[in-house]
Amino acid sequence: EHTLSRLQPFSEIRYACVLDSAGKKFAEFGRLPEGADLIKSTEVLTSRYKDDYIYVSQPVFENNKKIGSVYLFTSTRAANEKISRHLYTLIIIFVFLSVIAIYLASRFQRYITVPILKLAEFTQTISKKENLSIPSTKECGDEISFLYDNFNEMLKQLHQREKQRNDALIALQNSESRYRLLVDLSPSGIV
What we know:
- The chain is α+β, with helices and mostly antiparallel strands.
- It contains three helices and five strands.
- The chain is rod-shaped, with a radius of gyration of 45 Å.
């Protein structure tokens, strides 16, 4: 009884007892929960969970001879409540972190998505107007700015090539006009 009374500070332990080899109570602590029965004594550690209690039976041996058993009934309510509190805390943390993540994503969207969308709109404008001489305007000074710079350089090169092609086309048309004029004005024709 004295040894089992040391279990008193552990509020989750509802009942404990020691049985002798004949199955008679040698010592007990607490009160057996209603509807609970002692697990049939076995030669090995036995446990089960039922009705918010964990039932444990441990045989006691001396010189390889079973001299009795120890039974312990522990309530899981405190553990369940603690798990529930931890679960609620985790849910609150998850919701809080989700709100922060959504807020940060919306803030970063201004710096990443909006400039890229503006560049996409700008490409559509150039495509519709067919005017390569309009440069895009930078929004920021980071990697997206580098993208804008490269896009403007590409537009500049395309505009120069378009101008060179147009100049060559005008020169060809002028040359063809002079040739036709020469052919038309020559008295005998040019063969």
